Structures are given as C-alpha cells and as structure tokens.
Predict the structure.
Amino acid sequence: MEINKDLVAASSTPIVLAILAEGDSYGYAILERVRQLSGGRLTWTDGMLYPVLHRLERLGLVEARWEVAESGRRRKYYRITSQGQAQLADERRQWEAVDATLRGVWQALSGPQPQGAGA
Amino acid sequence: MTASLEEEIGRWRSYLHRRQAIQPVDVAELEDHLREQIAGLTRAGLSADEAFLVAVKRMGELDALSREFAREHSERLWKQLVASSPDGSEPQRDSAMAFALAALAALLIKVPALFGLRLDADTGFYARNLSLFVLPVLTGYFVWKRRLDLRAFGWFAAAFVVAAVAVNLYPLATGGSTELLTALHLPVALWLLVGMAYAGRRWNEVGGRMDFIRFSGELFIYYVLIALGGAVLVASMALVFQVVGIDIGPFFVSWLLPCGAAGAVVIGSWLVESKQSVIENMAPVLARLFTPLFAAVLIAFLATLLWTGRGIAIERNALLAFDVLLVMVLGLLLYSTSARDPRAPAGAFDVVQVVLVVSALLADAFALWSVAERITEFGFSPNRLAVLGLNVVLLVNLAWSAVLYAGFLRGKASFGRLERWQTDYLPVYALWAAVVVVVLPPLFGFA
C-alpha cells in the first residue's frame, strides 16, 4: 500500500514531534520508530527526514545538540521544546478531529444501509 | 568495516559536499545515518557492499534531497559575505588594517585644512592633489598585504613624492585647461602604482595584471554602491536634523563628503579583496549583458552614417565623445576577456565581441578622418592634444586586439595572446597620462 505524498508530508510533523515526546532521539532511530509504529506501511525516504527536522528546529519546536554516540561517532540528537509540546497538542486535536470525522463516515458507509456492493 | 566500504562512503560523502544547499554539518548527520543503516543491514545478514547499496538507495536521490535541503535552507543558495570568518586571525588583522588605513585616508584629506586651505575655495589645489591623498594609502595597504619588502616600499614612496612635487611645482593657471587635465590624468598615472602594489611580485605575469584589471572593475562597482548608500545616509541625516532646525550642509561639504569619499576607496578595496572568491564578479556580468547592446548601437550608427551620407559634424569636442566610446568598448572587451576561460573554443559571444570592436574602430576612424582634415583650422590646444592622444592610444590597443581576436576566431592564434597583449598594454595608459601631466603644461605655458 502506497501512502499518498501529501498525506506523508502533512503527517510528518505530528509523527516526528510525538516520537520526540517519547524521549530524545536522532534521525535513524526516529525512522526506525516510524517503521515499527506503522508496521512498515508508512515509509519515508530516509534523507527527507532531515530537512523536516531542520525546519522544526528553525521553528523552535525542537532543539538539537551534538553528542558522541557509543559508536564513537558524533551524532545529532533532537529534543522537543515546550513550544513543540504545545504544537503537538494542537496537531493532535486536529488529527483527532479528522480521524473522528472519517470514522463517522466509514461507519455510515458500512453501517445501517448495507444496500451497496457488499450486502 | 572493510577498506572498500570506507572508500565507497568517502565517495558518497564527497558527492554530498558538492551540493551547495547541504552543509558539512548536515553531511556529518547524514553520514551517521548511513553508517547506522549499513550496520543494521549487515546485522540482518547482508554483505557490506549490499548493505551500502541499500542504505544509499533508502537515503534517496541526491538531487531530490538537495532540493529539499535548499527549500528549507534557501539562504544557502545566496553566497554570504562573511567579512570576519571565525577561524584564523588573518582576516581580522586584515580588516583592522583596512579600517585604520581608511581612517588615515579620511584624516589626510583634512590635513590641508589645518593650513587654511578650504575645499570650496582652493579648488585648484584639491583638484591637483586629490589622488595624492588617497592612492598612497591604498598602495600602502597592498604593500602591507602582499608583504612586499622595504625596497619596494621605498620605490613607491619615491614615486608618489616625485608626482606630488611635479604637480605642485608647476604654476598651473587656476581654472585653466592644464589644471583640469592634470586633475584628470594624475589619478590614471598613479593607478598604475596601485596596480604594481596590488599585483606585487606577479606584476610581470599576465595573471597578476589580469587580477588587477578584475580588481579595478569590482572596486569601481563597489565604490558606486558605497556612494549610493552614503547618499541615502546623508539624505536621511539631513531630514532628521532639519526637524531640530540644524542644517548639516556645511558639515557635509567640509567633513562627511571628503572623508567618506577618501575612506571608501580603501574600504571598497578591502571588500573586493575579501569577497573575491565568495561572490561572483560583477563587472564581467555587466560586460556580457552590454556587449551585444553596444554592438547593436554602433552598427546602427554606422548604418545611419552610410545611409544618410552625413559626415560627422566636427565640433571642438566631438572627438571626446569617441574617446568615451572607445573607453567603454575597451572596458567591455577587457572584462569579457577577464572572465573567459582561455582554453574554451570560440563561440557566438566571441563573434559579437569582434563585431563590437571592429564597428567601434570604424566609427572612430570616421571621427579621426574628419578631425584630421580640419586640424590645422582649429589649431592645437592642450585639451585637443590630450583628447587626440588618448584616442590614438585607445585605437592602437583596440585595433591590435581586433586583429588578435579575429586570429583566435579563425583558429590561428590562442586566446592567451590576446590576454597578453591587453595586459602588456596597461602601462601605456599610465605613461600617456604621465605625459599629459608632466609634458603638456610647460608646452602650453601652463594655460
């Protein structure tokens, strides 16, 4: 199943912010978490995550710091800011509204009037 | 990790480095990602080579990635001039020196005021000496910057002293034409000294002189920009102070204008020096833009001349207009050549260039022809001699350039010969300017 590009782009901000709300993380681990959460259905081109992270950093929703990882390499870690938390809460309300609307429609379609193809 | 994998990663990294929108820190971040991905894939059982290929593939197309980065960091596509780079103290010392010398030039120009010479009253003195306040300081800056030895410093100092003595010993008539000619030609002659300091030990190389030509063009553009900025500053200042009933006019004329104009020469030079590899040179861009337009105008002029059979109405100053025209054409030619890769084959733009030069030469030949017929009628004056001399000097330069350029178009000569001719010819201009300053005034009784 291929998820449409606009949908991927629109959902990237809440997904990244939510994963960072679980705890500080870095690019590769964030992508792994996305793969795990979506059961492999939501796939991003790896490189594209970084411009998104940089945009969030510029907007002040996350902050970055360089650390030396256990592998000995320097690694850039991201942490969600309080402004990011607020943004995440806002995004969550919006997505829940969309989700609730869609659920209602799906139910209406498959619920009381089963005169369609499946009946 | 094997050596070949490291090599592969190194190559991938260098591809990323070439992208302007992706900066070294981003490359480090992406590389960390790539290595993590490879490690994960190898743990899952892939060989190092396979893991590398998959990891690179998952990272995404470089073009698309670079576009995404550019969208997020659009400022990176505009090269920024960072005057003082954080690493290394050399640029900082350089800027400190430049600002100190700019202040010195600004002060020097006010020194005569201590002896009661006023800018608005003693115009003759200032007209003669203006370049002598600024250009020695600029030369000093380059002597310092190029680390020239004491002997070179002595030579430059001696040359400036000789020029100062010669100009001030002559009893030039106030408001006379020899005075005006001196004011116009002395800076040109002294500019050669600046060039010799600028090029330093490379003065005798084509490359060194070409750099000086590029420097001069950029400095001119920067100077105009700084002057425009200064004008805006002065205008706002005048408006603001007008509110409290203070007229800044006198302050502007006696302090701001002379000091600013003198200091800006040094600041402009320093800017050109520090940005030369950061920002595209502007003069060649303008030259490329205007070469076809000038060529079209000249061809239209020649066609009109032939069509109407009208001779050039020779007034006393007609030749001056053609001098200006030739200077423009020479500038276009110089700055186009300065930006051209000498090894590139001849193209359409080169043809336009030759058309431009040849049509300018034809137009000038018409003008010279008409002047020659009536030269005895007019008689010689210092102005006419200076204008005629400059015309001949320019004509020789452009004519031989046209011959060499045509040879290059036909594949008979290399482009390097044209460059060599242009740079070799530079001192001739300074020499002619020196002749006008030194020989002409006594010839015409300092009129």
